[in-house]
């Protein structure tokens, strides 16, 4: 976020965003779940700036499937913003939501 705010021109902002999106895609391909919630939060910021971030939908679903509350919170937030009208994705979201609602742990 600091790098984006420090940009003086729109071209410089686009360059920073494209570089960061490439790093996020690389992190997603490595299947490193340690910083997945942080990378999805970065994608949400990128989406708010108006740049494409549709590639983060499946990562949001992976976060929702995680047993950690922090991951679930960021995952559901990401799904509410990034999900498109794809029947497959919507079915996965519905199944995850019903599973979480029926679980005995409220978090």
Mean pLDDT, rounded to whole units? 90
* SSE-based structural type: mainly alpha
Task: Note the run of SSEs as H and E.
Answer: HHHHHH
* Helix percent band: over 70%
H/I helix tally: 6
Largest sheet: none
Strand content: under 5%
Summarize the structure.
It contains six helices and no strands. It is an all-alpha fold and 107 residues long.
Structure description:
With 107 residues, the chain is mostly helical. Helix 2 runs antiparallel to helix 3 (36-48) and helix 4 runs parallel beside helix 6. The mean pLDDT is 90. It is elongated. The longest helix has 20 residues, at 10-29. The protein starts with a helix and ends in a 5-residue tail after the last helix. The protein has helices at residues 2-5, 10-29, 36-48, 57-64, 69-82, 87-102. Helix content is 70%, strand content 0%.
Keywords:
about 110 residues, about 0% strand, mainly alpha, single chain
What's the arrangement of secondary structure elements?
Elements: H1 2-5, H2 10-29, H3 36-48, H4 57-64, H5 69-82, H6 87-102
Helix pairs in contact: 2-3, 3-5, 4-5, 4-6
């Amino acid at each position: 976020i600091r790098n984006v705010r420090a940009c003086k021109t729109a071209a410089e902002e686009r360059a920073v965003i494209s570089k960061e999106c490439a790093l996020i895609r690389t992190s997603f391909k490595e299947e490193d779940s340690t910083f997945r919630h942080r990378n999805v939060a970065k994608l949400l910021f990128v989406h708010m700036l108006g740049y494409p971030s549709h590639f983060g939908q499946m990562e949001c679903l992976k976060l929702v499937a995680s047993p950690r509350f922090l991951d679930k919170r960021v995952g559901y937030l990401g799904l509410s913003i990034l999900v498109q009208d794809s029947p497959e994705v919507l079915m996965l979201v519905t199944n995850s939501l019903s599973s979480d609602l029926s679980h005995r742990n409220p978090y």
